[in-house]
Amino acid sequence: MSSSLTFLREFLRNPTQLGAIAPSGAELARLMITSAHLKPREVVVELGAGTGSMTREILRVRPRGPFVALEPNPVLAKTLRERFPEAPIDERPAQQLRAILQDMQLGQVDCVISSLPWAAWPQSLQDEIFDAILDVLSPQGRLLTFGYVHAQLLPAAKRLRANLNERFMLVRTTRIAWWNLPPAIVFCCGRPRERAPTQPGSPGGLRSP
Ligand SMILES: C[S@@+](CC[C@H](N)C(=O)[O-])C[C@H]1O[C@@H](n2cnc3c(N)ncnc32)[C@H](O)[C@@H]1O
């Protein structure tokens, strides 16, 4: 079965987990990964790898270097492993980022590439995942994520934008990837805002190995 059909079938089974009926197209993947300016030794984490549109582009521009792709849907994770046997794929969700990085002996993350379906999620889940990202992101780290153009005036998209502005000092949008179905823009977020220190006894910030 083609990866697009696998994706559609999994969307029909679990629409809020996937949040889209089709994988991202090549134009959006190129726009997202070019905008990330990945460097060879940076720790890169992909959230919501799906069938690998972004993964393919990440590995094309940066074939080596510390990397992990997260995909909690087991059917999609299997497809990913078949397509990219060289790439570490983890089936745990983004909420478990800290444990995943510790297991891989990776330090703080330099770049998070997220295709997570924020707009399909309630505020509480968005908050939980943003907290997990900021918990592992280095002070110079960045987050790239995308949104569909037609939905930008809807409350869910405004909520995402507010969430990004609340957590990052720099939030820039790219041009529109018009050939994507549906057309999309990328949010490039940098300079994470400082968060309140963690309580004694709770896990502290990750340190580079
Ligand atoms: C819109 S799809 C994007 C797939 C692919 N990256 C692309 O651009 O075509 C969102 C993906 O996020 C995954 N996902 C959903 N919840 C997640 C979570 N808590 N942590 C990590 N990935 C998650 C879904 O299984 C799905 O594959």
Describe the fold and architecture.
The chain is an alpha/beta fold and about 210 residues long. The chain has helices at about 5-15, 15-20, 25-35, 55-60, 75-85, 95-105, 125-135, 155-165; strands at about 45, 65-70, 90, 110-115, 135-150, 170-175, 185-190. It has a 7-stranded mixed sheet with strand order 3-2-1-4-5-7-6, sandwiched between helices. The radius of gyration is 16 Å and the shape is globular. The structure holds S-adenosylmethionine. S-adenosylmethionine (SAM) binds near residues 18, 71, 95 and 116. S-adenosylmethionine binds near residues 24, 47, 49, 76 and 117.
Number of domains: 1
User: What's the overall geometry?
Assistant: globular
Distinct ligands, ions and cofactors found in the model: S-adenosylmethionine
Task: Tell me, rounded to a whole number, the average pLDDT.
Answer: 92
Second rung of CATH, namely the architecture: 3-Layer(aba) Sandwich
Strand line-up of the largest beta sheet: 3-2-1-4-5-7-6
> Which fold name fills CATH's third level, the topology?
Rossmann fold
Summary keywords:
209 residues, alpha/beta, 7-stranded mixed β-sheet, 22% strand, binds S-adenosylmethionine
SSE blueprint and pairings:
Elements: H1 3-13, H2 15-18, H3 26-36, E1 44-47, H4 53-61, E2 67-70, H5 74-83, E3 89-90, H6 97-103, E4 109-114, H7 123-136, E5 137-148, H8 155-167, E6 168-177, E7 184-192
Parallel strand pairs: 1-2, 1-4, 2-3, 4-5
Antiparallel strand pairs: 5-7, 6-7
Helix pairs in contact: 3-4, 7-8
The chain binds S-adenosylmethionine.
